[in-house]
Write a structure and sequence with these properties.
Helix 7 runs antiparallel to helix 8. This protein has 16 helices and 15 strands. The chain folds into three domains: about 45 residues, no CATH class; about 140 residues, Roll (Sulfate adenylyltransferase); about 210 residues, HUPs (Rossmann fold). The protein is an alpha/beta fold. Helices cover about 40% and strands about 15% of the residues. Strands 1, 2, 3, 4, 5, 6 and 7 form a seven-stranded mixed sheet that branches. Strands 10-9-8-11-12 form a five-stranded parallel sheet, with helices on one face. This is sulfate adenylyltransferase.
Length: about 475
């Protein structure tokens, strides 16, 4: 039930939205959406009249968590997870994965200096991909992990999609090297573009089974898959497991809020629907994630978190810095109070179903309760013949199968199309009404962009197009 303060804030906004959401403009929606908004406004009015107060709560499966790489006893782990979950509910936010949000940053200057000195000059210069992993470990995006996976954890996640504790985890998080001088018991300084990001305690080194990792995690061992290319041709031949001590976050053009910071900016006691993307947001995307708030399993006062990945993706994708600029101008242009924006320092694997699980876990750690699963999410095509590696709904199916256990509800991506008669509608409505559908492929859009041709306003936001042209 809404609080009085929420109701006071919601009633005028919902009434306005209900009155304006049936026009055939950029924000065109179905009559059903307007009806739902009217019902929301009525509910807010009733709350104001009755001055009722309540505290919403939710239940999530809580698993025994690992503290670093030392297994806690079952009773202690369960108690800690339960305590963390209780705190999260009292604060009105979803509990992190495993019950506790990891924070590996070392703030004491003497301790930081001692950690660096203990490295005895040993350093690893991180790749862009590894720097993203280190950052997400340090800030808790990969909670409950407190370091890179050891061999037991790596093999467990590869073969079963679970940590040894039984907790779901989509993909292994590993540190690779070709330096044979690095051994268990050592500390090594992890550097990136002139910064000292972290110190890693090397607890173990091991030779990964890369063909098995590829087959289990990516569904194929073919080098035609970009993720398989990455683990086979970019990563070193040895993996290292061990705890991470965070020193500083990478300096980026696109600022990435930590899970704690994102949680603090999100409203309490409401559903938070995460939208993941790795490309600029066009009008169909905007319609998709704003209409997601009208899904049957999303509460009336729910909000969206647009949470694009700005780390390395596929070679032909638009660079992260450019994508970030498009998001910033769109955020300013739309200024929708129901839409929150943050950026994720994550390196895409294009692992399809497995990566959908990974994204759900990460967004859960950032405070989200729902996740939009698109058609062929994180999918990839063969670099030789263009054939898809995954079925269109494989990611949705795996996400749905694990949704309850993860404590994150899935919101299927609507098939939104643009019509001459009614603007953006769902494809089934367009078909039922015999409406004229307009189409523009991503390939054609990029060709038009490069050629300096006018981009249809029904397809893309002018502000986004301007940024893309300036950076092409």
């Amino acid at each position: 039930m809404e609080t009085l303060k929420q109701a006071q804030a919601n009633f005028p906004r919902l009434a306005i939205r209900a009155a304006t959401t049936t026009t055939a403009t950029r924000t065109t929606t179905t009559t059903a959406r307007a009806t739902k908004l009217s019902a929301q406004a009525l509910a807010a009015r009733k709350t104001l009249a009755s001055v009722s107060f309540g505290l919403s709560s939710s239940s999530n499966n809580v698993f025994s968590a690992r503290s670093g790489h030392h297994q806690m006893s079952t009773n202690v782990a369960t108690a800690a997870a339960a305590a963390a979950d209780t705190t999260a509910v009292l604060e009105g936010k979803a509990a992190p994965h495993g019950g506790k949000l990891s924070d590996l940053m070392v703030t004491d200057e003497a301790e930081r200096s001692a950690l660096i000195a203990a490295c005895e000059g040993r350093t690893i210069e991180l790749s862009d991909r590894n720097a993203c992993d280190v950052e997400l470990l340090m800030v808790g995006g990969f909670s409950p992990l407190e370091g890179f996976m050891n061999q037991e954890e790596y093999e467990s996640v590869v073969e079963t999609m679970r940590l040894p504790s039984g907790l779901l985890f989509g993909l292994p998080v590993v540190m690779d090297t070709d330096d044979d001088s690095l051994a268990a018991g050592m500390k090594v300084l992890l550097t990136y573009n002139g910064q000292n990001l972290a110190v890693m305690e090397i607890e173990s080194t091991y030779k990964p089974n890369k063909p098995l990792e590829a087959k289990k995690c990516y569904g194929t061992s073919s080098l035609e898959h970009p993720g398989v290319q990455m683990i086979s041709m970019e990563r070193g031949g040895t993996y290292m497991g061990g705890k991470i001590h965070g020193l500083e976050l990478p300096t980026r053009v696109f600022p990435c809020k930590t899970p704690a910071e994102v949680r603090s900016m999100l409203p309490a006691n409401v559903d938070v629907v995460a939208f993941q993307c790795r490309n600029p947001v066009h009008k169909a995307h905007y319609e998709l994630f704003t209409r997601a708030l009208d899904a049957e399993n999303v509460g009336d006062d729910g909000v969206v978190l647009v949470h694009p990945t700005c780390g390395p993706t596929q070679d032909d994708d638009i660079p992260g810095v450019v994508r970030y600029r498009t998001y910033e101008v769109l955020k300013e242009e739309t200024a929708d109070p129901k839409v929150n924006w943050a950026y994720l320092p994550y390196s895409m694997h294009m692992a399809g179903p497995r990566e959908a699980i990974q994204h759900m876990i990460i967004r859960k750690n950032y405070g989200c309760t729902h996740f939009i699963i698109g058609r062929d999410m994180a999918g990839s095509k063969s670099c030789l013949d263009g054939e898809d590696f995954y079925g269109a709904y494989d990611a949705q199916d795996l996400a749905k199968a694990n949704s309850e256990e993860l404590g994150v509800k899935t919101v299927p991506s609507l098939n939104i199309v643009y019509t001459d008669e009614e603007g953006y509608v769902t494809a089934d409505i367009a078909s039922d009404k015999g409406l004229s559908i307009k189409k523009l492929s991503g390939t054609k859009f990029r060709q038009m962009l490069r050629a300096g041709e006018d981009i249809p306003e029904w397809f893309a936001f002018k502000s986004v197009v301007k940024v893309l042209r300036e950076n092409s």
